[in-house]
Amino acid sequence: MASVMGLSEERETAARVRVEKLQAEADRVPAEPGEAETVLERRVIARAEAAVWTLPDR
Hints:
- The chain has 58 residues and is mainly α.
- Helices cover 83% and strands 0% of the residues.
- The chain has one domain (4-53).
- The longest helix has 25 residues, at 4-28.
- The protein starts with a helix and ends in a 5-residue tail after the last helix.
């Protein structure tokens, strides 16, 4: 049978791991909107360029 201290240590370790994972995710999240905005801007430009390429010659 596991001791109370052993179980407590396991739970503490699991909580510490969860905190570390959440902190890593929180650090990553602020960069994502900027990266997504860059992708969007590139796609808008690409679509505009494609529209110019498809214009008939005058």
